[in-house]
Design brief:
Layout (H helix, E strand, L loop, with lengths): L1 H48 L10 H9 L4 E7 L3 E6 L2 H9 L9 E5 L4 H20 L1 H8 L26 H15 L1 H6 L6 E3 L4 H13 L3 E5 L3 H4 L10 H17 L7 E5 L17 E4 L7 H12 L8 H11 L5 H17 L7 H13 L10 H20 L6 E5 L10 E4 L9 H11 L1 H10 L7 H16 L25
Parallel strand pairs: 1-3, 4-7, 5-6
Antiparallel strand pairs: 1-2, 8-9
Helix pairs in contact: 1-4, 8-10, 11-12, 11-13, 13-14, 15-16, 15-17, 16-18
Length: 509
Protein backbone atom coordinates (compact mmCIF):
# COMPACT_ATOMS: atom_id res chain seq x y z
CA UNK A 1 0.00 0.00 0.00
CA UNK A 2 2.80 2.37 0.94
CA UNK A 3 4.67 1.53 -2.27
CA UNK A 4 1.53 2.20 -4.34
CA UNK A 5 1.10 5.57 -2.64
CA UNK A 6 4.74 6.46 -3.31
CA UNK A 7 4.33 5.35 -6.91
CA UNK A 8 1.22 7.52 -7.30
CA UNK A 9 3.00 10.50 -5.77
CA UNK A 10 5.98 9.96 -8.07
CA UNK A 11 3.69 9.82 -11.12
CA UNK A 12 1.91 12.99 -10.01
CA UNK A 13 5.25 14.75 -9.51
CA UNK A 14 6.45 13.57 -12.91
CA UNK A 15 3.27 14.80 -14.58
CA UNK A 16 3.56 18.15 -12.82
CA UNK A 17 7.21 18.49 -13.87
CA UNK A 18 6.27 17.55 -17.44
CA UNK A 19 3.60 20.24 -17.54
CA UNK A 20 5.99 22.79 -16.00
CA UNK A 21 8.80 21.94 -18.46
CA UNK A 22 6.47 22.10 -21.48
CA UNK A 23 5.04 25.40 -20.30
CA UNK A 24 8.51 26.86 -19.66
CA UNK A 25 9.76 25.66 -23.06
CA UNK A 26 6.82 27.23 -24.88
CA UNK A 27 7.31 30.49 -23.00
CA UNK A 28 11.05 30.46 -23.76
CA UNK A 29 10.32 29.74 -27.42
CA UNK A 30 8.01 32.73 -27.61
CA UNK A 31 10.62 34.98 -25.96
CA UNK A 32 13.28 33.67 -28.35
CA UNK A 33 11.05 34.55 -31.29
CA UNK A 34 10.60 38.08 -29.95
CA UNK A 35 14.38 38.45 -29.46
CA UNK A 36 15.16 37.16 -32.95
CA UNK A 37 12.62 39.54 -34.47
CA UNK A 38 14.15 42.46 -32.58
CA UNK A 39 17.76 41.63 -33.57
CA UNK A 40 16.87 41.01 -37.21
CA UNK A 41 14.93 44.25 -37.39
CA UNK A 42 17.80 46.23 -35.86
CA UNK A 43 20.36 44.83 -38.31
CA UNK A 44 18.14 45.52 -41.30
CA UNK A 45 17.45 49.03 -40.02
CA UNK A 46 21.20 49.64 -39.60
CA UNK A 47 21.99 48.73 -43.19
CA UNK A 48 18.92 50.49 -44.53
CA UNK A 49 19.61 53.81 -42.82
CA UNK A 50 23.45 53.61 -43.02
CA UNK A 51 24.83 56.63 -44.98
CA UNK A 52 26.71 54.88 -47.79
CA UNK A 53 28.88 57.07 -50.00
CA UNK A 54 27.54 57.86 -53.46
CA UNK A 55 29.64 56.27 -56.26
CA UNK A 56 29.95 57.88 -59.70
CA UNK A 57 29.64 55.42 -62.58
CA UNK A 58 31.80 55.90 -65.74
CA UNK A 59 32.07 53.89 -68.94
CA UNK A 60 35.09 51.71 -69.74
CA UNK A 61 36.09 54.05 -72.58
CA UNK A 62 36.06 57.00 -70.18
CA UNK A 63 38.02 54.97 -67.61
CA UNK A 64 40.62 54.11 -70.26
CA UNK A 65 41.10 57.72 -71.41
CA UNK A 66 40.96 59.51 -68.05
CA UNK A 67 42.54 57.00 -65.69
CA UNK A 68 44.34 54.18 -67.43
CA UNK A 69 46.24 55.98 -70.24
CA UNK A 70 47.61 58.80 -68.00
CA UNK A 71 49.14 56.07 -65.84
CA UNK A 72 47.23 56.91 -62.68
CA UNK A 73 46.44 53.23 -61.85
CA UNK A 74 48.83 51.33 -59.61
CA UNK A 75 47.06 47.97 -59.77
CA UNK A 76 43.57 46.44 -60.08
CA UNK A 77 42.05 43.68 -57.92
CA UNK A 78 39.04 41.78 -59.33
CA UNK A 79 36.92 40.17 -56.58
CA UNK A 80 34.68 37.19 -57.36
CA UNK A 81 34.87 38.03 -61.09
CA UNK A 82 32.32 40.80 -60.49
CA UNK A 83 33.85 43.76 -58.68
CA UNK A 84 37.10 45.51 -59.71
CA UNK A 85 38.94 47.56 -57.12
CA UNK A 86 41.31 50.16 -58.65
CA UNK A 87 44.25 51.33 -56.56
CA UNK A 88 45.60 54.76 -57.65
CA UNK A 89 49.32 55.58 -57.53
CA UNK A 90 50.49 58.11 -54.99
CA UNK A 91 52.83 60.94 -56.03
CA UNK A 92 55.82 59.70 -54.07
CA UNK A 93 55.86 56.26 -55.68
CA UNK A 94 55.37 57.81 -59.13
CA UNK A 95 58.34 60.17 -58.66
CA UNK A 96 60.47 57.28 -57.40
CA UNK A 97 59.60 55.14 -60.44
CA UNK A 98 60.44 58.01 -62.84
CA UNK A 99 63.78 58.44 -61.09
CA UNK A 100 64.53 54.80 -61.77
CA UNK A 101 63.67 55.19 -65.47
CA UNK A 102 60.53 53.00 -65.44
CA UNK A 103 58.06 53.79 -68.18
CA UNK A 104 54.71 54.68 -66.67
CA UNK A 105 52.88 53.34 -69.75
CA UNK A 106 53.81 49.77 -68.90
CA UNK A 107 50.93 47.31 -68.28
CA UNK A 108 49.12 47.72 -65.03
CA UNK A 109 49.31 44.74 -62.68
CA UNK A 110 45.94 42.94 -62.29
CA UNK A 111 45.32 40.58 -59.37
CA UNK A 112 42.36 38.18 -59.06
CA UNK A 113 41.09 37.19 -55.62
CA UNK A 114 38.03 35.78 -53.79
CA UNK A 115 36.50 37.86 -51.00
CA UNK A 116 33.46 37.51 -48.73
CA UNK A 117 30.84 40.23 -49.03
CA UNK A 118 30.04 40.65 -45.32
CA UNK A 119 27.33 43.18 -46.02
CA UNK A 120 25.38 40.61 -48.03
CA UNK A 121 26.00 37.96 -45.36
CA UNK A 122 24.64 40.20 -42.62
CA UNK A 123 21.64 41.14 -44.73
CA UNK A 124 20.80 37.46 -45.36
CA UNK A 125 21.27 36.49 -41.71
CA UNK A 126 19.20 39.40 -40.45
CA UNK A 127 16.41 38.55 -42.90
CA UNK A 128 16.42 34.92 -41.72
CA UNK A 129 16.41 36.04 -38.07
CA UNK A 130 13.48 38.32 -38.74
CA UNK A 131 11.56 35.60 -40.59
CA UNK A 132 12.14 32.93 -37.92
CA UNK A 133 11.34 35.43 -35.18
CA UNK A 134 7.99 36.23 -36.76
CA UNK A 135 7.26 32.50 -37.16
CA UNK A 136 8.05 31.69 -33.52
CA UNK A 137 6.18 34.74 -32.24
CA UNK A 138 3.04 33.85 -34.22
CA UNK A 139 3.33 30.10 -33.74
CA UNK A 140 -0.18 29.77 -32.30
CA UNK A 141 -1.81 31.56 -35.25
CA UNK A 142 0.16 29.54 -37.76
CA UNK A 143 -0.74 26.30 -35.98
CA UNK A 144 -4.37 27.36 -36.15
CA UNK A 145 -4.11 27.85 -39.93
CA UNK A 146 -2.36 24.50 -40.38
CA UNK A 147 -4.95 22.75 -38.18
CA UNK A 148 -7.89 24.03 -40.18
CA UNK A 149 -10.56 21.34 -40.22
CA UNK A 150 -9.45 19.84 -36.92
CA UNK A 151 -11.37 20.13 -33.70
CA UNK A 152 -10.42 23.13 -31.60
CA UNK A 153 -10.68 21.33 -28.27
CA UNK A 154 -9.63 22.69 -24.91
CA UNK A 155 -7.78 20.10 -22.85
CA UNK A 156 -8.28 20.83 -19.17
CA UNK A 157 -5.15 19.98 -17.23
CA UNK A 158 -5.83 18.37 -13.85
CA UNK A 159 -2.64 19.98 -12.49
CA UNK A 160 -3.79 23.51 -13.33
CA UNK A 161 -3.91 26.01 -10.49
CA UNK A 162 -7.45 27.34 -11.10
CA UNK A 163 -9.23 24.14 -10.09
CA UNK A 164 -12.90 23.83 -9.18
CA UNK A 165 -13.80 20.88 -6.97
CA UNK A 166 -17.17 19.29 -6.28
CA UNK A 167 -17.12 20.93 -2.86
CA UNK A 168 -17.17 24.30 -4.64
CA UNK A 169 -20.47 23.42 -6.36
CA UNK A 170 -23.78 23.95 -4.55
CA UNK A 171 -27.46 24.42 -5.28
CA UNK A 172 -27.97 21.30 -7.46
CA UNK A 173 -27.33 18.29 -5.24
CA UNK A 174 -28.89 15.65 -7.51
CA UNK A 175 -27.07 16.78 -10.64
CA UNK A 176 -23.84 16.99 -8.63
CA UNK A 177 -24.34 13.39 -7.44
CA UNK A 178 -24.83 12.20 -11.02
CA UNK A 179 -21.60 13.80 -12.22
CA UNK A 180 -19.68 12.42 -9.25
CA UNK A 181 -20.75 8.97 -10.42
CA UNK A 182 -18.98 9.50 -13.75
CA UNK A 183 -15.79 10.56 -12.03
CA UNK A 184 -15.89 7.46 -9.83
CA UNK A 185 -16.30 5.33 -12.95
CA UNK A 186 -13.27 6.89 -14.62
CA UNK A 187 -11.19 6.31 -11.49
CA UNK A 188 -12.31 2.71 -10.97
CA UNK A 189 -14.13 1.31 -14.05
CA UNK A 190 -13.55 -2.34 -13.10
CA UNK A 191 -15.80 -2.01 -10.06
CA UNK A 192 -18.74 -1.09 -12.31
CA UNK A 193 -17.94 -3.56 -15.07
CA UNK A 194 -17.60 -6.52 -12.68
CA UNK A 195 -21.21 -5.95 -11.65
CA UNK A 196 -22.29 -5.91 -15.29
CA UNK A 197 -22.98 -2.18 -15.37
CA UNK A 198 -22.35 0.01 -18.39
CA UNK A 199 -21.89 3.68 -17.79
CA UNK A 200 -24.43 5.65 -19.85
CA UNK A 201 -23.50 8.71 -21.83
CA UNK A 202 -25.33 11.82 -20.78
CA UNK A 203 -25.98 15.24 -22.13
CA UNK A 204 -26.25 18.14 -19.92
CA UNK A 205 -20.47 23.23 -34.30
CA UNK A 206 -18.01 20.91 -35.29
CA UNK A 207 -17.77 19.51 -38.76
CA UNK A 208 -17.55 15.79 -39.50
CA UNK A 209 -13.74 15.87 -39.77
CA UNK A 210 -13.51 17.76 -36.49
CA UNK A 211 -15.73 15.18 -34.79
CA UNK A 212 -13.33 12.43 -35.82
CA UNK A 213 -10.38 14.46 -34.59
CA UNK A 214 -12.16 15.23 -31.31
CA UNK A 215 -12.73 11.58 -30.46
CA UNK A 216 -9.21 10.70 -31.58
CA UNK A 217 -7.80 13.23 -29.11
CA UNK A 218 -10.13 11.92 -26.40
CA UNK A 219 -8.82 8.38 -26.80
CA UNK A 220 -5.25 9.66 -26.50
CA UNK A 221 -6.06 11.43 -23.23
CA UNK A 222 -8.08 8.57 -21.70
CA UNK A 223 -9.38 8.44 -19.04
CA UNK A 224 -11.08 11.65 -20.04
CA UNK A 225 -14.41 13.45 -20.37
CA UNK A 226 -15.56 14.91 -23.70
CA UNK A 227 -17.90 17.86 -23.16
CA UNK A 228 -19.86 19.27 -26.12
CA UNK A 229 -21.63 22.50 -25.23
CA UNK A 230 -24.88 23.55 -26.97
CA UNK A 231 -25.24 20.22 -28.74
CA UNK A 232 -28.61 21.28 -30.15
CA UNK A 233 -26.64 23.30 -32.74
CA UNK A 234 -25.68 20.04 -34.47
CA UNK A 235 -28.00 17.54 -32.78
CA UNK A 236 -31.32 19.02 -33.92
CA UNK A 237 -33.76 16.46 -35.34
CA UNK A 238 -32.95 15.70 -38.97
CA UNK A 239 -35.35 16.76 -41.68
CA UNK A 240 -37.24 14.18 -43.72
CA UNK A 241 -37.08 16.41 -46.81
CA UNK A 242 -33.49 15.58 -47.64
CA UNK A 243 -30.33 17.68 -47.59
CA UNK A 244 -30.36 21.33 -48.47
CA UNK A 245 -27.96 24.20 -47.89
CA UNK A 246 -26.51 24.54 -44.42
CA UNK A 247 -28.49 21.54 -43.15
CA UNK A 248 -26.29 19.34 -45.33
CA UNK A 249 -23.17 20.08 -43.28
CA UNK A 250 -25.05 19.93 -39.97
CA UNK A 251 -26.55 16.52 -40.75
CA UNK A 252 -23.19 15.16 -41.92
CA UNK A 253 -21.73 16.31 -38.62
CA UNK A 254 -24.55 14.65 -36.68
CA UNK A 255 -24.12 11.41 -38.63
CA UNK A 256 -20.40 11.37 -37.90
CA UNK A 257 -21.08 11.97 -34.21
CA UNK A 258 -23.51 9.03 -34.15
CA UNK A 259 -20.96 6.80 -35.89
CA UNK A 260 -18.20 7.74 -33.45
CA UNK A 261 -20.43 7.10 -30.43
CA UNK A 262 -21.50 3.70 -31.79
CA UNK A 263 -17.89 2.53 -31.86
CA UNK A 264 -17.09 4.14 -28.56
CA UNK A 265 -17.35 1.64 -25.71
CA UNK A 266 -17.05 2.39 -22.03
CA UNK A 267 -13.83 0.38 -21.95
CA UNK A 268 -12.14 3.25 -23.80
CA UNK A 269 -12.09 5.22 -20.55
CA UNK A 270 -13.90 8.20 -22.04
CA UNK A 271 -17.22 9.69 -20.93
CA UNK A 272 -19.18 11.89 -23.32
CA UNK A 273 -21.15 14.80 -21.87
CA UNK A 274 -23.13 17.43 -23.72
CA UNK A 275 -25.04 20.51 -22.67
CA UNK A 276 -28.25 21.97 -24.06
CA UNK A 277 -31.22 24.08 -23.06
CA UNK A 278 -33.43 22.41 -25.68
CA UNK A 279 -33.49 18.63 -25.10
CA UNK A 280 -36.91 18.41 -26.77
CA UNK A 281 -35.55 19.25 -30.24
CA UNK A 282 -32.66 16.76 -30.25
CA UNK A 283 -32.61 13.95 -32.78
CA UNK A 284 -34.07 10.73 -31.38
CA UNK A 285 -31.03 8.78 -32.56
CA UNK A 286 -28.89 10.75 -30.10
CA UNK A 287 -31.13 9.70 -27.20
CA UNK A 288 -31.08 6.02 -28.11
CA UNK A 289 -29.66 3.50 -25.65
CA UNK A 290 -25.88 3.37 -25.91
CA UNK A 291 -25.55 7.03 -26.82
CA UNK A 292 -27.05 9.81 -24.71
CA UNK A 293 -29.34 7.64 -22.62
CA UNK A 294 -29.33 9.60 -19.36
CA UNK A 295 -30.43 13.17 -18.81
CA UNK A 296 -29.30 15.28 -15.87
CA UNK A 297 -31.43 18.36 -15.34
CA UNK A 298 -29.70 21.30 -13.70
CA UNK A 299 -32.66 23.41 -12.57
CA UNK A 300 -32.50 26.81 -10.98
CA UNK A 301 -31.67 26.37 -7.28
CA UNK A 302 -34.42 26.53 -4.66
CA UNK A 303 -34.10 28.62 -1.50
CA UNK A 304 -31.93 25.97 0.16
CA UNK A 305 -29.65 25.75 -2.86
CA UNK A 306 -29.35 29.53 -3.10
CA UNK A 307 -28.40 29.61 0.58
CA UNK A 308 -25.57 27.15 -0.08
CA UNK A 309 -24.38 29.04 -3.17
CA UNK A 310 -24.34 32.34 -1.28
CA UNK A 311 -22.24 30.77 1.49
CA UNK A 312 -19.61 29.76 -1.09
CA UNK A 313 -19.33 33.24 -2.62
CA UNK A 314 -19.69 35.14 0.67
CA UNK A 315 -16.56 33.45 2.04
CA UNK A 316 -14.54 35.39 -0.55
CA UNK A 317 -15.89 38.81 0.52
CA UNK A 318 -14.98 40.95 3.52
CA UNK A 319 -18.31 41.12 5.37
CA UNK A 320 -19.60 43.09 8.35
CA UNK A 321 -21.07 39.86 9.84
CA UNK A 322 -20.71 36.12 9.45
CA UNK A 323 -21.77 34.64 6.07
CA UNK A 324 -24.72 32.82 7.68
CA UNK A 325 -26.12 36.20 8.74
CA UNK A 326 -26.46 37.17 5.07
CA UNK A 327 -27.06 33.90 3.22
CA UNK A 328 -30.57 33.03 4.41
CA UNK A 329 -32.01 36.50 3.85
CA UNK A 330 -30.29 36.88 0.49
CA UNK A 331 -31.61 33.47 -0.57
CA UNK A 332 -35.17 34.65 0.12
CA UNK A 333 -34.59 37.87 -1.85
CA UNK A 334 -33.26 36.16 -4.98
CA UNK A 335 -36.06 33.84 -6.03
CA UNK A 336 -35.44 32.47 -9.53
CA UNK A 337 -31.75 33.48 -9.59
CA UNK A 338 -29.20 31.12 -11.12
CA UNK A 339 -25.74 30.45 -9.71
CA UNK A 340 -24.18 32.94 -12.13
CA UNK A 341 -26.65 35.64 -11.10
CA UNK A 342 -25.90 34.98 -7.42
CA UNK A 343 -22.19 35.39 -8.14
CA UNK A 344 -23.03 38.64 -9.91
CA UNK A 345 -24.96 39.86 -6.83
CA UNK A 346 -21.94 39.25 -4.57
CA UNK A 347 -19.56 40.93 -6.99
CA UNK A 348 -21.88 43.91 -7.49
CA UNK A 349 -22.28 44.35 -3.72
CA UNK A 350 -18.49 44.43 -3.29
CA UNK A 351 -18.22 47.03 -6.07
CA UNK A 352 -20.88 49.21 -4.46
CA UNK A 353 -19.06 49.03 -1.11
CA UNK A 354 -15.77 49.97 -2.77
CA UNK A 355 -17.47 52.83 -4.64
CA UNK A 356 -18.71 54.31 -1.35
CA UNK A 357 -15.30 53.68 0.28
CA UNK A 358 -16.69 51.28 2.88
CA UNK A 359 -14.33 48.95 4.72
CA UNK A 360 -16.82 46.04 4.72
CA UNK A 361 -19.80 44.84 2.69
CA UNK A 362 -23.14 45.21 4.50
CA UNK A 363 -26.70 44.04 3.84
CA UNK A 364 -27.55 47.43 2.35
CA UNK A 365 -24.94 46.85 -0.34
CA UNK A 366 -26.40 43.43 -1.18
CA UNK A 367 -29.94 44.82 -1.39
CA UNK A 368 -28.74 47.60 -3.67
CA UNK A 369 -27.02 45.00 -5.86
CA UNK A 370 -30.21 42.90 -6.07
CA UNK A 371 -32.26 45.97 -6.99
CA UNK A 372 -29.80 46.80 -9.75
CA UNK A 373 -29.89 43.28 -11.21
CA UNK A 374 -33.69 43.05 -11.05
CA UNK A 375 -34.64 46.57 -12.09
CA UNK A 376 -31.52 47.85 -13.80
CA UNK A 377 -29.27 50.80 -13.08
CA UNK A 378 -30.79 53.51 -10.89
CA UNK A 379 -31.56 56.66 -12.89
CA UNK A 380 -31.25 59.37 -10.25
CA UNK A 381 -30.91 62.15 -12.79
CA UNK A 382 -33.95 61.23 -14.88
CA UNK A 383 -36.36 64.16 -15.06
CA UNK A 384 -39.91 63.11 -14.04
CA UNK A 385 -42.80 65.49 -13.62
CA UNK A 386 -44.76 65.64 -10.37
CA UNK A 387 -47.83 64.18 -12.08
CA UNK A 388 -45.87 61.18 -13.39
CA UNK A 389 -44.26 60.59 -10.01
CA UNK A 390 -47.72 60.78 -8.37
CA UNK A 391 -49.13 58.29 -10.89
CA UNK A 392 -46.27 55.82 -10.32
CA UNK A 393 -46.66 56.14 -6.54
CA UNK A 394 -50.41 55.41 -6.67
CA UNK A 395 -49.82 52.53 -9.09
CA UNK A 396 -47.23 50.75 -6.93
CA UNK A 397 -49.26 51.47 -3.77
CA UNK A 398 -52.27 49.85 -5.44
CA UNK A 399 -50.32 46.61 -5.92
CA UNK A 400 -49.19 46.66 -2.30
CA UNK A 401 -52.61 47.41 -0.75
CA UNK A 402 -54.50 44.81 -2.79
CA UNK A 403 -51.87 42.19 -2.03
CA UNK A 404 -52.04 43.01 1.68
CA UNK A 405 -55.77 42.25 1.94
CA UNK A 406 -55.85 39.09 -0.21
CA UNK A 407 -55.28 35.69 1.38
CA UNK A 408 -53.28 33.84 -1.27
CA UNK A 409 -50.82 36.53 -2.39
CA UNK A 410 -47.12 36.55 -1.56
CA UNK A 411 -45.77 38.83 1.20
CA UNK A 412 -44.63 42.27 0.06
CA UNK A 413 -40.94 42.97 0.60
CA UNK A 414 -40.21 46.34 -0.98
CA UNK A 415 -41.84 49.04 -3.12
CA UNK A 416 -39.84 51.69 -4.93
CA UNK A 417 -40.67 54.50 -7.35
CA UNK A 418 -37.04 55.27 -8.20
CA UNK A 419 -36.60 54.99 -11.99
CA UNK A 420 -34.38 52.09 -13.07
CA UNK A 421 -33.23 50.68 -16.36
CA UNK A 422 -34.57 51.91 -19.66
CA UNK A 423 -38.31 51.89 -18.94
CA UNK A 424 -39.17 50.92 -15.35
CA UNK A 425 -40.37 53.88 -13.27
CA UNK A 426 -40.92 51.70 -10.20
CA UNK A 427 -41.46 48.11 -9.09
CA UNK A 428 -42.55 46.00 -6.14
CA UNK A 429 -40.62 43.01 -4.83
CA UNK A 430 -42.30 40.09 -3.07
CA UNK A 431 -41.07 37.13 -1.01
CA UNK A 432 -41.94 34.05 -3.05
CA UNK A 433 -43.12 30.89 -1.32
CA UNK A 434 -41.89 28.88 -4.35
CA UNK A 435 -44.90 26.58 -4.53
CA UNK A 436 -44.73 23.88 -7.16
CA UNK A 437 -48.53 23.79 -7.47
CA UNK A 438 -51.00 26.66 -7.55
CA UNK A 439 -54.74 26.52 -6.90
CA UNK A 440 -57.44 28.37 -8.78
CA UNK A 441 -57.84 30.73 -5.81
CA UNK A 442 -54.13 31.55 -5.77
CA UNK A 443 -54.13 32.40 -9.47
CA UNK A 444 -57.23 34.57 -9.01
CA UNK A 445 -55.67 36.51 -6.11
CA UNK A 446 -52.47 37.02 -8.08
CA UNK A 447 -54.49 38.34 -11.01
CA UNK A 448 -56.30 40.79 -8.72
CA UNK A 449 -53.03 42.00 -7.18
CA UNK A 450 -51.49 42.48 -10.63
CA UNK A 451 -54.43 44.66 -11.68
CA UNK A 452 -54.35 46.60 -8.38
CA UNK A 453 -52.04 49.26 -9.83
CA UNK A 454 -54.34 50.08 -12.74
CA UNK A 455 -57.37 50.10 -10.41
CA UNK A 456 -55.62 52.57 -8.07
CA UNK A 457 -54.96 54.92 -10.98
CA UNK A 458 -58.62 54.75 -12.03
CA UNK A 459 -59.99 55.38 -8.51
CA UNK A 460 -57.53 57.96 -7.16
CA UNK A 461 -56.55 59.87 -10.30
CA UNK A 462 -59.61 59.32 -12.42
CA UNK A 463 -57.75 58.02 -15.46
CA UNK A 464 -55.37 55.24 -16.46
CA UNK A 465 -51.88 55.39 -17.98
CA UNK A 466 -49.67 53.19 -20.11
CA UNK A 467 -47.73 52.13 -17.02
CA UNK A 468 -49.96 49.05 -16.65
CA UNK A 469 -48.77 47.48 -19.92
CA UNK A 470 -46.54 44.89 -18.27
CA UNK A 471 -49.28 44.08 -15.74
CA UNK A 472 -51.77 43.45 -18.53
CA UNK A 473 -49.31 41.13 -20.30
CA UNK A 474 -48.92 39.05 -17.14
CA UNK A 475 -52.68 38.91 -16.54
CA UNK A 476 -53.30 37.88 -20.15
CA UNK A 477 -50.84 35.00 -19.87
CA UNK A 478 -52.22 33.82 -16.52
CA UNK A 479 -55.84 34.00 -17.69
CA UNK A 480 -55.08 32.28 -20.99
CA UNK A 481 -53.28 29.50 -19.14
CA UNK A 482 -56.24 28.98 -16.78
CA UNK A 483 -58.63 28.54 -19.69
CA UNK A 484 -56.56 26.79 -22.39
CA UNK A 485 -54.06 24.77 -20.34
CA UNK A 486 -55.28 24.09 -16.80
CA UNK A 487 -59.02 23.65 -17.51
CA UNK A 488 -60.17 26.14 -14.85
CA UNK A 489 -62.98 27.59 -17.00
CA UNK A 490 -66.45 26.17 -16.37
CA UNK A 491 -67.71 27.31 -19.78
CA UNK A 492 -64.84 25.89 -21.84
CA UNK A 493 -64.55 22.78 -19.70
CA UNK A 494 -61.77 20.34 -18.88
CA UNK A 495 -59.59 20.93 -21.91
CA UNK A 496 -55.87 21.51 -22.35
CA UNK A 497 -54.60 22.69 -25.69
CA UNK A 498 -50.97 22.07 -26.73
CA UNK A 499 -48.64 25.00 -26.18
CA UNK A 500 -46.60 26.63 -28.89
CA UNK A 501 -42.85 26.06 -28.77
CA UNK A 502 -42.12 29.71 -27.99
CA UNK A 503 -44.92 30.19 -25.45
CA UNK A 504 -44.09 31.05 -21.85
CA UNK A 505 -47.40 30.59 -20.04
CA UNK A 506 -45.89 28.21 -17.53
CA UNK A 507 -43.28 30.76 -16.49
CA UNK A 508 -45.94 32.78 -14.70
CA UNK A 509 -47.72 29.93 -12.94
Amino acid sequence: MGNDKKKTNSQSLAQWMKVAVVGSFQEALKKLGTLMTLIGGLILSFFYFRPFGKNQEISFQEFKIKVLEPGLVDHIVVSNKELAKIYVKNNESEEAQEGLGIDHHDFVRVTYSSETDWVSVFLILSTLLLAFGVLFHNKERIDGMLNFGKAHVTIVDKYAQNKVYFKDVAGCAQAKQEFMEFVRFLKNPKKFQELGAKLPKVFVGIGAARVRNLFKEARKCAPSIVFIDEIDAIGRARSSEGYSGSNDERERTLNQLLVEMDGFGTTAGVVVLAGTNRPDILDKALLRHGRFDRQITADKPDIKGRDQIFQIYLNKIKLSHEPLYFSKRLASLTQGFTGAEIANVCNEAALIAARTEEAQVTMDHFEAAIDRIIGGLEKKNRVISKQERRTVAYHEAGHAVVGWFLEHTEPLLKVTIVPRGTAALGFAQYVSNENLLMTKEQLFDRTCMTLGGRAAEQVLIGTVSTGAQNDLEKVTKMTYAQVSIYGFSEKVGLLSFPQREDSSETSDK
